[in-house]
């Protein structure tokens, strides 16, 4: 009987692992999402794996050996609990397939902030102050508009210290 398993792959070799596993009759799946990245000063839509370095594999261990899956090019090993590979529940895979590249998932990955959205600063000298999200400033920082002495001023803040109001 076929079961889903989670494989850990070499860095950036999920596609290679998937191709080689499919040649052996193993079904593979890894969710892809589209995220906005700032590259050379421009926002670009980029597709990335939701779980970097991980691939879900669907096969019957009586037809395909664990050792042949584990020794497939691009695969490092199974995710295990003790000596046994962990089986992944079918409902989890179905839920991931449904959620893949949904607007809700994309917003979570992009910190979910839209220009003009009210936010609160969570740390630093402006902790607790409310601001307006203006735009991203690279992958790790954002530009916020904060009112100081009745004048809006731009402030660059680490994304970890910004929360939606």
From TrEMBL:
Pfam families linked: NusG
Keywords: DNA-binding, Transcription, Transcription antitermination, Transcription regulation
Ranges of residues in domain NusG-like N-terminal: 1-100
Source taxon at top rank: Bacteria
Record flagged with keyword Transcription regulation: yes
Record keyword Acetylation present: no
InterPro entries named in the record: NGN-like_dom, NGN_dom_sf, NusG-like, Transcription_antiterm_RfaH
Subunit structure: Interacts with both the nontemplate DNA and the RNA polymerase (RNAP).
Family: Belongs to the RfaH family.
Its job: Enhances distal genes transcription elongation in a specialized subset of operons that encode extracytoplasmic components.
Protein's UniProt name: Transcription antitermination protein RfaH
Organism per entry: Salinivibrio costicola
Gene: rfaH
